[in-house]
Amino acid sequence: MPRHPVPLGFVFRSRAKNEKASAADQAPVTDSKSTRDPQARKGRPTPKRSEAQSQRRSVANTPTTRKEAAKRSREERRTVMEKQRQALATGDERYLPARDKGPVRKFARDFVDSRFHIAEFFLPLAVIILVLSMVRVASLQNIALLLWLFVIILIVVDSISLGIRLKKQLNARFPDANKKGVVAYALMRTLQMRRLRLPKPQVKRGERP
């Protein structure tokens, strides 16, 4: 029987179909569970709900204008100043100014507050001496001058004694701590009357620090 010739177009179409079918069989199968969450950033896992809420709060609290930023800065400074004021009255170490912080400075304050010092009476004595010197009586003016010299000598002697004793105690109690400027800090505190000292005294007279 005579063979019918196969059309050339049919051969090419069949070959193309077979190639498409084999390519489809070899294509990797993707799991629906591994599909990236549309809310997650590219290449990153989906954030937890708590993290997303904290991010939204931080964005919401961020000032949007210069005026709002300045207002928030003023409020923060006011809050810090209020906490420092309360700390100066109560001795709370967490909010004290930098110059008053630390166990070394606290010990120096307690060491000063536990004793009487001539220097703390400097201001009232100076007022008395000034009044005496203004009286136009030669004898009173001479007394005022001698009293002034006597007070200065007492303050110098008491300050030297305090500095030596305080330095000895600091070296014994805080051998490895930074003690720079602590003696001067204590001497400046002696020049203030006890009721006016800041931070407020935390020990009584005669009580060991």
Distance between the termini: 126 Å
H/I helix tally: 7
The major beta sheet can be summarized as:
none
The structural class is mainly alpha
Q: Low-confidence stretches at least 5 residues in length (pLDDT < 50)?
A: 6-12, 27-40
Strand content: under 5%
Work out the radius of gyration.
Answer: 42 Å
Instruction: Find the count of extended strands (DSSP E, 2+ residues).
Output: 0
Helix content: 55-70%
Task: Round the mean pLDDT to the nearest integer and report it.
Answer: 79
SSE succession: HHHHHHH
Query: Could you say which overall geometry the principal axes of the C-alpha atoms support?
Result: elongated
SSE blueprint and pairings:
Layout: H1 8-26, H2 49-61, H3 66-90, H4 103-113, H5 122-134, H6 138-173, H7 182-190
How does this structure look, described?
Helix 4 packs parallel to helix 7. It contains 7 helices and no strands. The chain is mostly helical and 209 residues long. It has a domain at 117-196. The termini are far apart. 60% of the residues lie in helices and 0% in strands.
Keyword list:
single chain; 209 residues; mainly alpha; 7 helices; 60% helix
Task: Provide a short characterization of the protein structure.
The chain has 209 residues and is mainly alpha-helical. It has 7 helices and no strands.
